[in-house]
Design goal:
With about 475 residues, the chain is an alpha/beta fold. Helix content is about 30%, strand content about 15%. The chain has a single domain, classed as Alkaline Phosphatase, subunit A. The longest helix is centred in the middle third of the chain and has 31 residues.
Length: about 475
Amino acid sequence: MSSNLLVILSDEHQARAMGCAGHPFVQTPHLDALAARGMRFTDAYTPSPICVPARASFATGRHVHQTRLWDNAMPYTGQIPGWGHCLQDAGVPVESIGKLHYRKNGDPTGFDREHIPMHVVGGHGMVWGSIRAQAERVSPPTRMLGEHIGAGTSKYTDYDQAVTAKTVDWLSAHKDDDQPWCLYVGLVAPHFPLVVPQEFFDLYPPDSLPAPKMNPKEGYVRHPWVELQNAQMDSESQFTSDQERRHAVAAYFGLVSWMDHNVGRLMQALEEHGLTDKTTVIYSSDHGDNVGARGLWGKSNFYEESVGVPMIMAGPGVAVGKCETPVDLLDIAATIPAHFGLEFQSEGLSLPEIAANPPDPERVVLSQYHAVGAVSAGYMLRKGRWKLNTYIGFEPELFDLQNDPEEATNLAADPAFAAIVSDLTTELRLRVDPEAANVQAFADQAALVESYGGREAALNMGAPGATPPPAT
């Protein structure tokens, strides 16, 4: 008989920002404990480094060019069958608590019940971000990271508290269920606004933190595609002082520890109700955050800080250790039905199956971005030690993650690496036609904008930064 399955997805958690991942100072004792009794996937990625497309791919087990849900104004509605529908069809109880970032309450997205769900604004999301042509787009009127940065509480910390409390109550109510269940829990931390309760902010004295790497003020030159992508919301330029910038770094890591604290409350509830040995837990995040590296904040690019995600699986029968085979969120989409012995069409593979086989560092992982700020499509292909970032209309980037884990040196133009660029480009084209997907995304976005009444109407649709949570 299969165990219960608890899937926890946070928002914007950088893969490296865990003690168990070797981070020099971040404090994540509860995730570290989860990893210590389970399997940590060391090279995990998002299918798209922005919320809504990543979550649609997570729901369906399909790549962004397959779902055609390109940006934060194209939320999942249940129109493509996902793992939730697979569980429902088999009679497995499946519910959600917290952030989903799908379209709206009542859509048939594969849950028997959604508790305090957070969906896109107004059922339409960030339509202004679908206007991507450089000459037509505009910057939002307010700062993406939020007005106040530092210690305190926000609607997001309040929401996470409510999601955690609701989950603790749910586990108590279902501790004696005869039938194994699946519960999805969506936390919003460490997503901005960069405001965190004082005790967690105090874990990271701002003046003690290292300055983010590769700041353009110190001579680092950003890739032209990245420069244009960032220009639409340039958070770095909007800090009021160096002190506020340091507070932003401290608040981000404080939010990581706040999120870890809430995960700890869920693990404690499992223990108190005798569910630890009956429940498999999967933890991951929808994408990462740059946290000031290269002068960038938020996500939306293919550097490890943004595109990498944490991934941990623990529970009865789950092997203990580290798996160095590259994985992504599509693999979680494959894992959930497989856990209950169900067949599901997914582009991913079951995580226990991946971990049970010898390490396959050559396994290819794809990520792509067609959303706010991007003047053309971008793609990341990871294979072995190599990462190729391909940008339509721009020169590529090639990084050797083995010798250059910080991605400081772009090798793409070096003739000595031409064969590697060629091989990775071939691998990319086996999976997606980059130019055709770019054209399709722009066409779909133009049709979307037109459906809302054109550019002027679209520019006023959607939150300028963080999606407001529901009343709790």
